[in-house]
Amino acid sequence: MPFDVEIALQRGKLKLDYAFRTEKGGLTALFGPSGAGKTSLLDAIAGLARPCEGRILVEDTVLFDKAGRIDLRPEQRRCGYVFQDLRLFPHRSVRENLIYGWRLAPAEQRWMDLDTALGFLGIGHLLDRRPATLSGGEAQRVAIGRALLSGPRFLLMDEPLASVDAERREEILTVIERIRDELALPILYVSHDRAEVDRLADRVIAIEAPRAISQAK
Amino acid sequence: MLTAEEWQILLLSLKVSAVAMAAALPVAFALAWVLARWRFPGKVLLDALVHLPLVLPPVVTGWLLLIAFGTNAPIGRFLSDWLGLTFIFRWTGAALAAAVMALPLMVRAMRLSIEAVDRRLESAARTLGAGRWRTFASVTLPLAMPGVLAGLVLGLARSIGEFGATITFASNIPGETQTLPLAIYSALQMPGSEWQVTRLAILSILVSVAALVASEWLARRSGQGAARHAL
C-alpha cells in the first residue's frame, strides 16, 4: 500500500486529524482550502514535523508510529520532497544542488543518474548557474530533479505550480505527468486548484479545514 | 630595520593574538550557536555574561580574570594542577585576556549570521538524506561563513589592540606579556623616548593594516570557495 496515514497534528490550539490510505500507486492529490494544513501533513510524512499521535506507513514501511515508538529521521525516510518554496541551496550551483542527495544516497538506492535527470527535465543548459539566476519554471524543474536524484521511494509535491508563471505551467504539468506515467513512484500532490487536480490526479483526497479541539484552558 | 627588542615585541604580539583567536573561535561559535538556536531559561543571563567584557572597564575584566584564574583561584588551580597551564605573569595570560575581550564581538557577529541562515534549507537537506552534521557542514556553516569571518576579523582587531585587561591580569613584562600596546605605554613612561614610541606606533599601524588586508583576502577567498566546494 503506497500511503497509509492516520495521524493527529497539533498546531497551536488546533488539532488536525488526517486519515487516508491509497491502494495503488500513481498520483494522489490532497485537495483542500488553504489553511487546511496540507503542508503540515507533508512535513509530517517527511519527518519534519512530529505528529502527536498516529502512524505513517509508506510502501509498507513504518515511518512513524507513536504507539510503537518509531520515528524515522527525515534522512532515513527516503522521501523526495518538492517544497512549495523550492529551497534550492543558494550557495551551490544547479549541478551541486542536483547531486546533493544523489551523492548521499547509497549506490543501490539511486535509480536515476544526473544525465537521465537532465534529459528528463530539460535542464542540461542550467548546470553552472546559481539558483538565484533561474526563472520560476527552471528553478521548479531543478527542485524536482534534486528530489528525484536522491533516490526516493515516494514523492511529495507541494503546490509545484505555485512559483511558475502562466506560460511555463504547461511545461511543468507535462514533467509531472511524465513522472507519474514513466516512473513507478507513488506521489502525494498538494494543490488547491481544481483544474490541476482533475488533470493530474489518479485519485483525490479532500482535506477539510481543521476542527478546533476543546477550547478549555 | 627592527631592533631585536622590537622584533621580540612584534612576535609576542602576533603569538598572543593568534593563540587568543585559535582559542576564542570555537568558544565564540559555540556560544553564538547556543544563543541563536537554543531556547532555555537563563538565556538572557548567558547573553549578558558574554557581553560583559564589552561594557565593563577592561581593568575590571582583568581583575575578574585574576580572581578566576589566579594561582589560588579554583579555576586557576585546576588548570595548573591538571594541565600545567598558568596565566599570571605569562604570555598565556595575555592571550587569555585578549580572547576574553574579543569574545563578545565575535559572538555577536557569528550569532547574527547563524540566525540569518534559513532553516528551511536545513530541512530540505535532511529530506535529501543529510544527517545533522552533514547538514551543518554543507548548508549551515557555509551560509554562516561570512559572519564567522567577520567575527574573526573583529576579534583579531580587538585582540591586537588589547591593553587594559592584559596589563591588569598578566602584567607588563618585557618578553613575556609585553605586547605592542603595552610596550608603547612603557616607552611613553620614559622621558626622551619619543622616537621609540613613534617606531612602535608605526609598527602597530602596520600590523593592524596587514591584519585587515589578510582578513579581506580570506573573506573573498572563502566567498568564492563556497561555490567550488561541493560537500
Q: Output the number of helix runs of chain B.
A: 10
- What is the chains' assembly state? heterodimer
SSE class of chain B: mainly alpha
Q: What is the top-level CATH class of chain B?
A: Mainly Alpha
Cα separation of the termini of chain B: 46 Å
Q: Helix and strand string of chain B, N-terminal first?
A: HHHHHHHHHH
Which whole number gives the mean pLDDT of chain B? 91
Strand content of chain A: 15-25%
The name of the CATH superfamily of chain A reads P-loop containing nucleotide triphosphate hydrolases
The share of residues in helices of chain A is: 25-40%
Indicate the CATH topology of chain B.
Answer: MetI-like fold
- The CATH architecture of chain B is Orthogonal Bundle
Strand order of the largest sheet of chain A: 2-1-4-5-6
Radius of gyration of chain B: 20 Å
- Total number of domains of chain A: 1
InterPro entries (chain A): AAA+_ATPase (IPR003593), ABC_transporter-like_ATP-bd (IPR003439), ABC_transporter-like_CS (IPR017871), Molybdenum_import_ModC (IPR050334), P-loop_NTPase (IPR027417)
Protein name (chain A): Molybdenum ABC transporter ATP-binding protein
Keywords (chain A): ATP-binding, Nucleotide-binding
Pfam families (chain A): ABC_tran
